[in-house]
Write a structure and sequence with these properties.
Blueprint lengths: L6 E2 L2 E2 L1 H22 L4 H17 L1 H4 L8 H21 L6 H5 L7 H16 L3 H12 L4 H8 L3 H18 L9
Antiparallel strand pairs: 1-2
Helix pairs in contact: 1-2, 1-4, 2-4, 7-9, 8-9
Length: 181
Amino acid sequence: MTAGTTLTNGTTAEHELAALQREHGRPLFALLLRLCDGDRQRAEDLVQETLVRAWQHPEALRADDFDSVRPWLMTVGRRLAIDARRARQARPAEVGDAVLENARVISDHAERAAAALDVREAVKTLTPEHREVLVLVYFQGASVAEAAQALGIPPGTVKSRAYYALRALRRVLPGYAPDLR
């Protein structure tokens, strides 16, 4: 179909849309299939949406500035494909029931609070030197160098005390050992 299509009541006539589909449908579908990574259903949906846009904007089809409406259709189709991809990436992936049944259960707040109390009690059993290093490095997020400077001891001593403090916690908290690696 070329420019200068006939309009009926301000919209493109049905037979003209059919001619548009026949003339430009295959190249449009090929483009959209590539943009949809081979998903035929999505590409077909985008072809239909592109033709709906052509029906909604008959002024684009009757412009005398170009010989063919194919560039306009390709541009509209490409933009629709980009919008569809962005929309899919913006929402979380859907999962089936089978995936949910096998999903790992995340502990609730009560379990985390109980674990925190256990760790707090276990930390009290450490020597004051080990406790200082553990609190600075692991709970307050200080680097080894920062902890060494704050405590006035060499960095190697900080590393050693942290190692032995964690080892002592593993003995006191056997159920939490995998979390203390």
